[in-house]
Amino acid sequence: MIYLASQSPRRRELLEQLGVAFDTVDAEIHEQRLPQESPADYVSRVAREKAGAGLLALAARPDAVVLGADTDVVLDGEVLGKPSDAAHAAELLARLSGRTHEVISAVWLLSDRREERRLAVSTVRFAPLSGADIAAYVATGEPFGKAGAYAVQGRAAAFIERIEGSYSGVMGLPLHETWQLLRNFGVPAWSRN
């Protein structure tokens, strides 16, 4: 049985696109970048820790396979994270305005006998944003709980001039990489109606 170590509605929706039967498991971990840790290593470690915490919570189910994922926005080598409040969201969006940034998404699949990882790195170009654009977007509430203070699948799509890489990865779960992992674990996609 596949378990998604996430309560994110976006990740659930994306995994459902692959037609895989799955359940969710709570996997709360502390997300803090270590000194000297590269952004890619940080995102990968957090995804691995989520999957590991999920697997530990399912210790009574030896057939469990847990999928853990993490996604973050990186600008000039800095992991931006999620905004703490409206002012922080506005600050992050102002920094992204008129610039290109990276979105790193890591996926781990773990069982009690094996583990594998995939990484997707995408680039996203934002149009220049006015203060009014930023204030109106922040007022929608959409930036909260989102890496980099925006949701590519939401209203912020209007700000995006270009994406190179995985759209689903920018959303929170790179489907091609996830599909590869599931195939390697012998889990058929589109196996449920």
TrEMBL record:
- The catalytic residues are 70
What is a GO molecular function of this protein? Answer: nucleoside triphosphate diphosphatase activity
Identify the keywords attached in UniProt to this record, alphabetized: Cytoplasm, Hydrolase, Nucleotide metabolism
**KW Methyltransferase (keyword) present:** no
Q: Give the matching InterPro entries.
A: ITPase-like_fam, Maf-like
Identify the NCBIfam families for this entry: maf
Q: What is this protein called?
A: dTTP/UTP pyrophosphatase
The species this protein was found in: Arenimonas maotaiensis
